[in-house]
Amino acid sequence: MVQVSEQMILETLGRVTDKERGGDIVSLGMVSGLNVLDGNVFFAIEVDPQRGSRMEPLRQEAEDAIKAIPGVESATVVLTAERDSSPQPQPEQGQHHGHAHGPDAVLLPDVKAIIAVASGKGGVGKSTVAANLSVALSQLGMSVGLLDADIYGPSMPRMMGIKGEPSSSDGKTINPMEAHGIKVMSIGFLVEEETPIIWRGPMVMSALEQLMRDVAWGTLDVLVVDMPPGTGDAQLTMAQRVPLAGAVIVSTPQDIALADARKGLNMFRRTNVPVLGLVENMSYFVCPHCGERTEIFSHGGARREAEMLSMDFLGEVPLDMAIRETSDGGTPIVAADPQSPHAQAFLAIAGKVKSKLETLVDEQASEAPKIVIQ
Fold it and tell me: Three-state SS across the chain?
């Protein structure tokens, strides 16, 4: 097997030309963050922000060139740009949510509402909630997109049962994949499932912006964003770069998970993003053999937390094998068995979220939130 080296990659990229600047992308210093691991290649192409929207053909050319090298198993290339720090024009008053001016104009202009599904820590079933919430909102009559914003650990390709790579109709934008009536986009469609993403914060933020800017989402009533756990770069990128209609916080009932959920809640509040409410996942377990109910992670903690923080409690979802099996199998429980009690729990949560969105969308201005330091 041919051993792929960084030198081989750079020599190949030296034949990829930025026609606008009249030179190859290596000599022009446009290649950054190059990583080669067991035949899997990752790097970014740095471009001027003003040229970002038309650089997709260059990115695609570089990616195709690397994939053609013997021994390369996969190639993941993102566009990244250092944004101008000078003051930008402010959005006009009265603009509807989702339509921003200036540098934000290319990010999701036809999406009526964007909601983040977030958690303060991993392992609470946030992605399961995001997938089922998306399908439930679709079943309630909304046109829905689902963005997997977890760059390091994308799970939506498996949960939504989607395989293969997305296509491009115009050579400039990527068509989202579709399943269960939902438009879906994830970095997981562009890399092998077991390939690690080894990127620093700026590359993650750039990749996330590209998944919003360069994907042909079309007109949507709502875009559900499955956030990575915690309160890091991806969360700040979403809070600052797009006008979020609100956030749904997912937690399990026990105190340690609720403490982390509180951190996520406070982050969204500091960035002026409305918190739509709290979901208690893995709320209880009912034995399928004897019917006995066991509260493995305690019960009711999220409801009490919501009351204490003066926020809405959206509902509780049980810990059940059917939810796990359908998620692993690529058909979320709301799609697999919509009449089941578990699916009905997600549909009830979706009904509350839909009602809140219908109220919030017309009230919010389009200006991206600003971080408040206290």
Answer: CCCCCHHHHHHHHCCCEECCCCEECCCCCCEEEEEEECCEEEEEEECCHHHHHHCHHHHHHHHHHHHCCCCCCEEEEEEECCCCCCCCCCCCCCCCCCCCCHHHCCCCCCECCEEEEECCCCCCCHHHHHHHHHHHHHHCCCCEEEEECCCCCCCHHHHCCCCCCCCCCCCCCECCEEECCEEEEEHHHCCCCCCCCCCCHHHHHHHHHHHHHCECCCCECEEEEECCCCCCHHHHHHHHHCCCCEEEEEECCCHHHHHHHHHHHHHHHHCCCCEEEEEECCCCEECCCCCCEECECECCHHHHHHHHCCCCEEEECCCCHHHHHHHHCCCCHHHHCCCCHHHHHHHHHHHHHHHHHHHHCCCCCCCCCCCCCC
**pLDDT, tens only, 132-185:** 999 999 999 999 999 998 877 789 999 999 988 888 787 778 899 999 999 999
pLDDT at 347 exceeding the cut of 80: yes
Angle between helices 126-139 and 321-328 (to 10 degrees): 80
Question: Pick from 273, 256, 269: which is nearest to 367 by CA?
Answer: 273
- pLDDT tens per residue across span 223-262: 999 988 765 666 776 777 778 889 999 988 876 666 777 7
Strand-by-strand arrangement of the 114-118 sheet:
177-179, 182-186, 144-148, 222-226, 114-118, 246-251, 275-280, 313-316
Report helix angle 6-13 to 56-67, nearest 10. Answer: 130
CB 374, CB 271: distance < 8 Å: no
